[in-house]
Amino acid sequence: MKMDVAGRDAGGLSELIQRATKRFTKVLRHAPRLQVRSLTFDGPTVTPEQAGYSALDFVQIGINEKTERKLAFLLIVTEVELAAASVSYLLALPSQLTNVAIVSTKRLADFESDEARDQDLLTRRLTTLMLHCFGRLLNLDYQSDPTNYMARIRAPEDLDGMDHFSERQSERMATSLPEEANDRFSEGNKFVFVLRQLAGNLPRIVRGALRSNPLRIATKLPTMIATALSVIILLIFGGETWDFAVSVSARQLTVFVVVSFLAATLVLYRAFSFRLISTRHGKTSESAVVTAGATYLALVLTLCCLLLLFGLLMYGVVVFVFPDPLMSTWTSDQDGSTAGAHFRLVVFLAAVGILSGSLGGSADSRSVVRNVLFAADET
Which residues are listed as membrane-spanning (predicted)? Predict the structure, then answer.
């Protein structure tokens, strides 16, 4: 899909994409069920950031268009600069979880060089970049061979030497393509459809969640961690907290932890997930359900990591900071120095931490967390 964001056909963008699309289709001719459609989408409402346009804004537009047009994969080609989180600029951003890839022609060649006027060179580079992104959408791994389409791209010049998929990669693509492209749409009850798709796509959802790396997501939530620790430290030095931990039953504590966990995940999901929409006819797609499921599971695993972190930290504080005589006498009528009391206290504080932290965590950088969730590859 061509997106002429700047409102002008910079550098013959339409002709460049048409030539690249023909070469792209020719390379993938071994996949007889693959059909490539070229679409035009001019002038979307996208606000540039300081270092360029946010690639994740294009991903949201891609999700909408892919759902409405019932497309299995979507490669968006634009002429504007894409902002990057960890590098100086982006050539492309494939999002395996959403099956949408964003490609920019801005940096295919230096604007003032002779390469910028070599249309055949630009076409080859754009084609190679599109093939690389498509391979990533089909979960192909990076290769050390610099002539392979799945080699890592550090500069536009690296695209010149990439000219083939291996036989093993072609076989894997032929195997993965039907599974990834089989996108169903709801016909009757949406709730039943969602449950069926969650159950039927559980392996894909788990893979997508693990690929997002929950530990890395946790490191991108400094405001959440700071908020949680502030509340936990305040509570642990209160005698009422120790009284509650000593007196609370296992059933009551379990209910509190489960409710806190569900509330925290819902707050973070609303803050960081993409807006997954239905078609104009009100149909929900299977890919939307899988994306939502993987996003929610990734956030659940992230909170599990933080729950364990807070628990271990508080256990260390209880064991190594508080003197035993104080534990025994601080509580009203029971001994707070027992292992059971320590466990209940630690679990309670960790649950309070993720609940209160989620409220602060929703203020963390939306783009940074989304980038980890939906687009780990910055090319």
Answer: 217-238, 250-272, 293-322, 342-361
